[in-house]
Amino acid sequence: MAAAAAVAPPVVNVVALCGSLRKGSYNRGLLRAAMDISKSIKGLEIEYVDISPLPFLNTDLEVDGTYPPVVEAFREKILAADSILFASPEYNYSVTGPLKNAIDWASRPPNVWADKSAAIVSTGGDFGGGRSQYHLRQIGVYLDLHFINKPEFFLNAFEPPAKFDSDGNLIDDSAKENLKEILLSLYAFTLLLQGKCV
Ligand SMILES: Cc1cc2nc3c(=O)[nH]c(=O)nc-3n(C[C@H](O)[C@H](O)[C@H](O)COP(=O)(O)O)c2cc1C
What we know:
Low-confidence stretches: none
Bound molecules: flavin mononucleotide
Family: Belongs to the SsuE family.
Function: The enzyme apparently serves as a quinone reductase in connection with conjugation reactions of hydroquinones involved in detoxification pathways.
Keywords: Flavoprotein, FMN, NAD, NADP, Oxidoreductase
Number of helices: 5
Number of domains: 1
Order of helices and strands: EHEHEHEHEEH
Pfam families: FMN_red (PF03358)
EC number: 1.6.5.2
Mean pLDDT: 96
Helix content: 25-40%
Number of strands: 6
Radius of gyration: 17 Å
CATH topology: Rossmann fold
CATH architecture: 3-Layer(aba) Sandwich
CATH class: Alpha Beta
């Protein structure tokens, strides 16, 4: 009897967003590591989308229901994604201004976040950005985003041994394993949400 042909796993397209704009951002380093790890997860595709070109939200920039070209391009990326991976550093116990700005632009009508799955990772001082994660989950209620509950990923970037190299690349193996668990959970949860369980 001929062997059954292998069935390709369903594809989940993830857009990765980082709340820090600085070049050596550790949170951006988490996303680079996640993109690297995703190569070992069949069906999971991650695209990094830079939020730094977005202007400050100003509804005066909306003309006859259209948005500035750079905003439209960002909104289209979000709309086309199945899922969002946020790297959300903590500024003053909350999400960063740039990330909130990007979220707000894509929430303008029609809200392009709706019905998507999402996961959050963060790194920083003491709690590793955890407080920003819980604010982001709250924002997601109104956006109709659906976050994975577990596992959670917080990484203290400043406790020895070093977690990042001088370019902001993640060098900690156990953090990489934890990141992989996040990605596997996000992949499975996205399929569940879309009714495509395998
Ligand atoms: C304006 C500002 C506010 C911050 N507030 C907090 C904070 O409330 N809690 C915390 O743990 N770290 C705080 N930090 C530290 C950052 O979270 C930390 O530097 C982190 O590494 C920044 O992320 P990045 O490396 O991706 O740029 C703050 C940093 C800045 C610039």
